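Please check this one:

***
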Amino acid sequence: MTYFLTGDKVISVKNKNLVEKEINMPATLFGERFISRREPAWHGLGEVFNKDLKLNASEAMTKADILFGINKYPQVVKMEDGTELATESFAVVRDPVAEDPNPRVLATVGNDWTAIQAKELGKMLDPISEKFPIETAGAIGKGEKIFVTMDAGESTIAGEDHELYWLVTDHRDGTGALTVAFTPVRVVCQNTLVTGLRSSKISINLKHTKSIQNDAAFYLDIFGQMTKTQESVVTAMNSLTKATLVERQVEAILSAAYPNASQPTKLNHTNGISVGDVPPIVWNRILSDRKEQKELWEKRQARVDRIKDNAKERLDVFNQDFLKYANTPWAVYNAIVETEDYRRGWDGSGTALYGQRANAKARAFNSALNFVK
């Protein structure tokens, strides 16, 4: 069983021994809106349903209490004299819920953004969940994201057992659309393998939503895309075991995952200015600002370097445990994935599948793939 959300404690299985990995990072579940099949989740929230109970998407989303509505309303600017000015932006507003009884603004979006109601999403996913059983369902933040994962079975990748999942996410914060992504998980360590590949996601034509549950051609297209996507991602992952990297290539993948910290704007703007270019009082201010900004930059870079060093340590462990795949792109990618799944630190997304951690995994995978083409 795999739990994608990260938090106070994660249990991973390796060589049949339980190993606890402590993480000082709060989960960002929306209340207790999380359900899972078969086993209690480590965070102690939400509800477990029996592994033999087959829930379709609508039933699972109802059980997880994530069917709250969202709507889009015009935003206005209210002047000091009470005059209201129309704007071209809109607010995404979540309906009240028991523990948050007032309407909640989730995001600001443009005129073209269209809300997908959770009830309609559930109806759309019901036929798909007949083939791929619901594994989890939940909501994140204040309802900015709702998600379900569906069990796609198992497969052997790089000689190891992997659990296969389809992750369906509706982004309601203006940062993304509805996505359906194929996400394998290494059974041996429960690492969540985010690839970032365009081919790992399937496209859904949301114009069909009004009659979607009756559109047989639509579902034939979805199932066809799922089969093709699953095959292409597994093939891409297996290809990462086919090459042995030299040190500079390993470093290239690490640097892609963990690029150097960018200079603060103030520091960048004052590069090249010397004492004779500005009045003394301005120069003294520049020196003071540069010192502060340089310390900030160095602190950011030190953090990047620490994370990269941690990934190198994980790579050494992987190379010792899996000699056959030592120093392959697969080894480097998995070292980065494990670093991101279990490192300490705060991540606003709260998950191994969204936000900065997922982005680092995706950059690593795409960089690693360059060395096997």
About this structure: The helical segments are 57-63, 118-131, 216-239, 247-257, 265-269, 280-321, 329-342, 355-369. DSSP finds eight helices and twelve strands in the chain. The longest helix spans residues 280-321.
